[in-house]
Amino acid sequence: MKLAAVLAMTLATSSCVQLPTYDLVVYGGTSGGVVAAVAAARAGRSVVLVEPSAHLGGMTSAGLGATDIGNKRAIGGMARDFYRAVRRHYDAPTSWTLETRADYRGIGLKDGEDAMWAFEPHVAEQLFERLVAEAGVRVERGARLELDGGVRKDGARIVSLESEDGRRFEGRVFIDASYEGDLLALAGVSAHVGREANSRYGETLNGVQVGNAAKHQFKVRVDPYVIPGDPSSGLLFGVGAQSPGPDGSEDRRVQAYCFRLCATDDPRNRIPWPKPEGYAERDYELLLRNFEAGDPLAPWHPLGMPNRKTDSNNNGAFSTDHIGANWDYATASWEARDAIVTEHERYQKGLMWTLANSPRVPADVREHFASYGLPKDEFIETGGWPHMLYIREARRMVGEYVMTEHECRGTRKALRPIGLAAYTMDSHNVQRYVDASGAVRNEGDVQVGGFPPYGIDYGAVLPQRAQCTNLLVPVCLSASHIAYGSIRMEPVFMVLGESCAIAADLALERGVGVHDVDYRELRARLLAAQQVLE
Question: Looking at residue 69, what is its pLDDT?
Fold first, then answer.
């Protein structure tokens, strides 16, 4: 345990401080965590929301304004209320400061809909802050979970969690709403990192996916060696020396992360792309060779948000995803995670600067990127750069029920649904390697859809009973890699956060563990909260 934590505990003991025992302790101020805390507070429960950073809302307020969901009718309850609040915000003419609503050509705003599914980051964060303030939720910020013994248990029950700086939070029920799953791991709950073999759950799209990796792939032949044609010269930055492995086989590799950039082409609000400290053009040699080999794609996917801003995602063979740089993130220390985040920032800032400035970038692509930059009025404390890296996937709990490709495709149905998922089974690339012909290739991208919304079983947010009886997990829930790729959407995290809070409230009311909640009673309360279950 760290010295600061020891000193804080000593001080607390010597002062005879009696800590409150909360009905619900929520770890992780993600969108799902905020909704869980607010739902419990509205039910009259004492709640504390413990957030490792300074910000609430997770990726919803960190640049992911282009809401992924598929079928929006699958979203109900407080999640839909959030997107209705977004709509009300932009229905006000005063919200359109850099363009008029009539001039808006972005996504997510349609006449006749009750909600809006695209927004600026600061608007989302303001809405989350308003939610916790109105509900009277106590929020503890900058409270990173102590990764060395920061969870105390009594048998199969969590008693308390402790932050690195010595803050301790006791509770009756706990929710791990973090993207990393640190609370569940420290509580002794089983989890998986990486991709399961297809054989584990009888799937077809899990594990290594060389054969299916056709999207965001190199369309032209690109030499991976420092000196073209000379393997002895070494590999270019971003290319791994590893074999990808047999199709469908298990590995510990994780799909790539990136920052979801909020960019603008408005000269009044634009900061030119910064050139990062430590910039080296050689780190982008693959990108430049890809252009020179004949791929003309501008490698990003900017979707229009209000006031001439974007939510910009990965697109193409070499883009904002820092492939292979995140494999250790899920189980790393906070210091190691900070280094991984810093490296992603260096990489992505350098990428944008290269695209806007390098003479080796095609002129039309260079001019396109030079016309964009970071917004002056977003992420002000970080110079327009998002305050959070997009942790698409880290730990996934192995709980009472594991969601798999079978639920996604509808060949098996969840019998105790607590919400719906509705997105394509989606994984970003996982690794970059040299194929048998001596060319560079990406591996891991899967995009398979065409199925209707499907239920997420209550057992998927429950740990195995023998491991923990008072924990619910709406974000790092129990799902295979490929099923998680369909479930892991921000509105679904909100839906599951609310459902977990309702289950916690019911467990407390009935004096039972979360596993012993009567599903019929839970279902009735979920429907009363306007959750969509079918």
Answer: 87
Give yes or no for residue 11 having a pLDDT over 50.
no
Give me the chain's average pLDDT, please.
96
Compute how many other C-beta atoms are within 10 angstroms of the C-beta atom of residue 213. Answer: 21
Domain covering 3-10+19-194+458-514 in this structure, CATH number: 3.50.50.60
271 and 380 Cβ atoms separated by less than 8 Å: no
Beta bridge partners of 193: none
Q: How is residue 166 annotated by DSSP?
A: S
Sorted by sequence, the CB contacts under 8 Å of residue 326 that are 6+ apart come out as 254, 256, 257, 340, 344
Model-wide pTM > 0.90: yes
Report the candidate in 32, 179, 137, 48 with the shortest Cα–Cα distance to residue 496.
32
CA atoms of 159 and 19, how far apart (whole Å): 12
286 has a pLDDT exceeding 60: yes
What's the one-letter identity of residue 377? D
DSSP-derived letter for residue 374 is E
| Adjacent-strand bridge partners of 211 | none
pLDDT at 14 over 50: no
Say how far apart CA 275 and CA 42 lie, in whole Å: 47
Residue 471 sits at φ, ψ, to 5 deg, of -130, 140
Task: Tell me which residue of 479, 452, 299, 460 sits closest to 393, measured CA to CA.
Answer: 479
> Sign of dihedral through CA atoms 256, 259, 262, 263?
negative
b/e string for 320-347 if b means 16 or more Cβ within 10 A?
bbbbbbbbebbbbeeeebeebbeebbbb
Q: Which amino acid is at 501?
A: A
pLDDT at 13 exceeding the cut of 60: no
Output the pLDDT for position 10.
46
pLDDT of residue 16: 52
